[in-house]
């Protein structure tokens, strides 16, 4: 039974920080490349960041320099440290696991998804 459980969301003012966590079970985590997506009301689901088990990381331009993705295989967890948050970052954030394919931004390239954690940034 695969589970991805996100936590760490909340409400912050612009310029603040949050650290999202996603803990995994039910599959071989240290074989899994991971990603974070977000979806704001009325918008499509948007890829935010991805990380491979070999350490390669990828960010969309709008979060580069502000967000940091990391893995902890001992805890079967992936994290997203979000600094200098902006109102445009407001969304439900989802953890995605077992990336296989050639495009980080294609949701169908991930086999497993969490339920999401809400991030709200006020101006």
How does this structure look, described?
The protein is an all-beta fold and 123 residues long. 0% of the residues lie in helices and 51% in strands. The chain has strands spanning 3-7, 10-13, 18-25, 34-39, 46-51, 57-59, 67-72, 77-82, 91-99, 110-113, 117-122.
Helices and strands in order:
Elements: E1 3-7, E2 10-13, E3 18-25, E4 34-39, E5 46-51, E6 57-59, E7 67-72, E8 77-82, E9 91-99, E10 110-113, E11 117-122
Parallel strand pairs: 2-11
Antiparallel strand pairs: 1-3, 3-8, 4-5, 4-9, 5-6, 7-8, 9-10, 9-11
Shape: globular
Instruction: Give the end-to-end Cα distance, rounded to a whole number of Å.
Output: 40 Å
Biggest sheet layout: 7 strands, mixed
Give me the strand/helix succession: EEEEEEEEEEE
Range of strand content: over 45%
Arithmetic mean of pLDDT: 96
Compute the number of helices.
Answer: 0
Which descriptors would you attach to this protein?
123 residues, seven-stranded mixed beta sheet, four-stranded antiparallel beta sheet, 11 strands, 51% strand
């Amino acid at each position: 039974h695969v589970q991805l459980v996100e936590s760490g969301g909340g409400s912050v003012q612009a310029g603040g920080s949050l650290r999202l966590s996603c803990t995994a079970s039910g599959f071989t985590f240290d074989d899994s490349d991971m990603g974070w997506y977000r979806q704001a009301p009325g918008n499509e689901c948007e890829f935010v960041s991805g990380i491979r088990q070999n350490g390669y990381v990828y960010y969309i331009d709008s979060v580069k320099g502000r967000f940091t993705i990391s893995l902890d295989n001992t805890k079967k967890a992936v994290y997203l440290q979000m600094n200098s948050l902006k109102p445009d970052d407001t969304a439900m954030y989802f953890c995605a696991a077992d990336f296989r394919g050639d495009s980080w931004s294609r949701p169908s390239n991930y086999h497993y998804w969490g339920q999401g954690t809400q991030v709200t940034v006020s101006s």
